[in-house]
Every structure is written in C-alpha cells, then in structure tokens.
Predict the 3D structure of the following.
Amino acid sequence: MSIKIWGTALLLAGTISSASAAALPTLDGKWQCQSPEANTENEKSWVIYDFSEQGMVKSQEWIQYKKQRKTQLEYNLFVDYRFTQKGDDYVLKPVKLSREIIADPLNIDPFNAEQRRDLTGYRIFFKPTIVSRNKANFEMWYHITPDHHFTMQCEQQAS
C-alpha cells in the first residue's frame, strides 16, 4: 500500500505549478483541485494550491483510503514548491514537506524517511488551461513518468 500512497501523494501533492504571477496572472490565489481518477468509493482526495507572486506554490492535500467502508489511512500533506518555466512547460520542485496523519489504524506509516526523500526529489510538469473565469484544468506529469499525463479539475477559491 505504501507504493500506492506514494504515487497518490505525488499525484495530488504535486498537482499544480506556475511560472510567475506576471506570466500566469489568472492563476494567482487559491485553487481547489480534484482528479477524477483518484476519487472512487475506496479513495477520496482533493488538493488546494495557493499561488504567490514570489514564485512559490503552497499546497494542502487531503487523502483518505477505505476498505469495506472502514478508513485504512487518512492524512493531510503540505508541500511548498518553487515554480519555474522550462520552455512551454511549468515545473514544480518541492522545497518543504510536512504531514498530518489523521487515521492510520493499520500503522502503515506512509511518511518514513525513505518516502520523504522520494517526495522531495521529484519534479512535476504542468500546463494550465483556463476553462472559465474561475475554472481551470491542469494537465500534469512527473519527471519520472513523462508519458503518463493526468488532469486536475480546479476551481478558484474566493479570497
């Protein structure tokens, strides 16, 4: 289960990036995102990205795994990213990571030292598509799996 948790944490924690407030002014502020692939009867999640003018993105990710209607693992993951532009793409690089375990009845411990090292070593690429004034889709992929793209459906939150 820890490999799946790591993959989901990467998927959700890294869901957003941006080049700069000047390059992407419509992304300023907070966006709440969900991946249609990651929300099922046994897995629920969302992530909030907060874009700043200083080239930083703060994220809060919530994930819950269930089996037979019982919570197996539930946690919040908080990641601060530095974001830059690389060609036509934008890149997120984690610079700070913390977590809060809400429920772990099976003592899975998804945030041991090895998992934290893996999380801080990844890069997320993304291309935002503005759908309407407060809605966007973020097409994303990880540097370790560049051919596997996924889309986060996002809605801008009121300030």
